[in-house]
Amino acid sequence: MQNRKNRQKSKRIFLIPLFITIAVFFSLTISLPGQENFPDPEGKTGTPTYGDAFVVGEIGDARTLIPILASDSPSSYIVDLVFDGLIKYNTSVELVGNLAESWDIEEDSLVIVFHLRKNVKWHDGYPFRAKDVKFTYECLIDPKVPTPYSGDFKMVKSVEVADDYTVKIIYKEPFAPGLTSWGMPIMPKHLLEGENLLTTEFARNPIGTGRYKFKRWKTGERIDLVSNHEYFEHRPYIDRYIYRVIPDSATMFLELETLGIDSMGLTPLQFTRLTETPFFKKRFQKFKYPSFGYTYMAYNLKDDKFKDKRVRQALNYAVDKKEIIDGVLLGQGKVSHGQFVPESWAFNKDVKPYPFDPKKAKKILEECGWRDRDNDGWLDKDGRRFEFTILTNQGNDNRRMTAEIIQRRLKDIGIKVNIRILEWSVFLNEFVNKKKFEAIILGWGLGREPDCYDIFHSSKTKEGEFNFISYANPRIDRLLIEGRRTFDLEKRKEIYNKIHEILYDDQPYMFLYVPDSLVAVHNRFQGIKVSPIGITYNFIDWWVPRDRQRYTY
Amino acid sequence: MIPILIGITIISFAVIHLAPGKPTDLMVQLKPNVDLEAREKLNQIYGLDKPIYVQYFNWIKKLARLDFGRSFIDNRPVMEKISERLPVTILINVLAMAIIFLFSIPIGVKSAVRRGSVFDKTTTIFVFMGFAAPSFWIGLLLMSFFGVRLGILPVSGIASLDFENFTLIHKVLDVMRHLVLPVSVISIGGLAGISRYMRQSMLGVISQDYVRTARAKGLPEKTVIYKHALGNALLPIITILGLSVPSLISGSVIIETIFSIPGMGRLMFESVFTRDYNVIMAGLVVSAFLTLFGNLIADIAYAYADPRIRYGK
After folding, report:
1. Which of residues 168-187 of B touch A (CB under 8 A)?
2. What is the pTM of this model?
3. Structure letter (DSSP) for residue A43
């Protein structure tokens, strides 16, 4: 009797915390006002209206919003909305004016004169003037400022303010890629003069001239921007821009499904499978455009095996790029035809990618002296087996899988490939920079400017420089310099087309693929147009019909 | 204490700097437009070109003035970065700890008292399932169920998008709603350990002579268990409580990443990957202090639970 009573009591004691917790849990699951899901009628077209917010999810947080110090993509992303450069690229990947209305190239291409817009104001109301351009330049070349972009401005001899709306840039020698570098966002002199750029409050409270004004930054959580009503083109239709930091990609996808975010970049798997549901199709629009970059396998050209151009060509025949794209990117990419992406004007349309032809590969290798003399299934020459190791970095499954496919294809023609995956810093510092590798798989993210002097010029082979494959071709060297000195677009086109052709023939890299950028955006946003430079270039023209706006301010 | 602390900092400093890579790497590596000179300039500005012992002395000199320096990544004072991240991590862990103790002590006591019963066996199974399942998996399942399927709880983050416009009560409720899932996930994972310890320690105590004496005196079973036995059985649990304080930081990485919570664990994790030396070192010093603090709490709790170690009585 006594015992049972105790049992009941102890049961009760056990149940109390259970009840409390469950009660708290359920009381919290009751929806709060302001949380209802808005109905989602079919999209309408009509005249653009103001209002609503665009919430984008990204993996990482920004670091600094000082344009010339921002080197990571989240920071650049925000900086791009808050600040403007003198020039920008249009949808056909040509340079057009931004803060500068127009520009002239004078005195044998040694001087660029920018004519600035007259109706531009900083977000604090202060007018934008030529002295701001000069100030930005002075910060860029200041030895005390840790900017990674100073290299672009090394060739500048001086920057002169002719009047409030005219800036003269004088170069030491003609330098065509220099024009692109003036896409560098311009910083306000009246706010930053005399400030230490490293410690200034401005880094977390920027004032620019751009489409959106900075409002608030909650570290590691979100950054809020509000539309700039005075923007010199026109007031953006979307009132707010909210950048949410969601470090886990699975979580981000769940947030997208619950409309916690309106847009995110998708993986090929998400793009081809997870978003192909009726639920998703009813709520989201998907976009796909080629990214400006490519993945490649680079050979160490100091290695005896790869010195012969014919061997590299043979390897290119032996690997099926289409297969890699289908297997690794689930078809969401294009075969890389060389250094330039198909959307670039530098791209040479006459360069045809090698077909997949293992027989031909074998034949070429045999001509070069590689054949299976000891009948062990592997090619050999001078008593040494054709064997090499592909290095790549940890954490990038696409590169690992690419290496595995290459391994299999080269095995078919009798080449033994080993794969070694290394932690990023070790990979770069101990192997790539020190040139201790046979082959590596890496990718280049390219700018719109085709100049690739730093990647392929024979002088750029010091430790930590980008010609880590020790590529040296006097013709390429000459063309690269010529390309830098020529401003005329038609002539430049010829030069870079030539470079493209020679590089593809030389095969210093095995060019593999150009991945597609895949993006989902909620379908209440109207006016999105895909272009070779992505979808966000006309963000100020995006709008949401009044009855579908989700957020009100 | 001080020599130990200095020893810890020397070893950590050396280990962190021995790892390949520098904080400036991410700013410059594999960017075709960043040339060698720009890189060397960066290293100079941040003092990374100096020998490691010089860098250490510079660091410890500042530390003596309680200055942790600035982050290499965004140049903000390290103390500022840590102080905006620490509170949410502590909040989540304290809540989770409270729930863990609230549940695991009764579970442990009951399983011990009724050892071998159905209750003992079923709780063992469930508790171990929670222990064995990876927290990120449970997290995603809960998010997908409560957040997406039922749509009654927010998926991630610590506040709603229009948080600023809320009233105070609404704000508190909003944060609590966001904390339900992360706190649950941590609690599910932590339940097993503590309830097992509790069970074990209770079993040990129940077979002691004084418990038999208490029963022989004819005291009700409830008094025997909850007054005589539980007090003593709690002592090892208090030790564990003290020990678990420093793991607050390291243990939060996964939860904070999955639930997009800007806390200390994520800060440390990201800093290690970006080689943000100053933040890592400050984080380690903070952990060291948390360890001391945990010990202090444990000592105070001991004094409360165990009259033998109270002074002056």
Report:
1. 170, 173-174, 176-177, 180, 184
2. 0.82
3. P
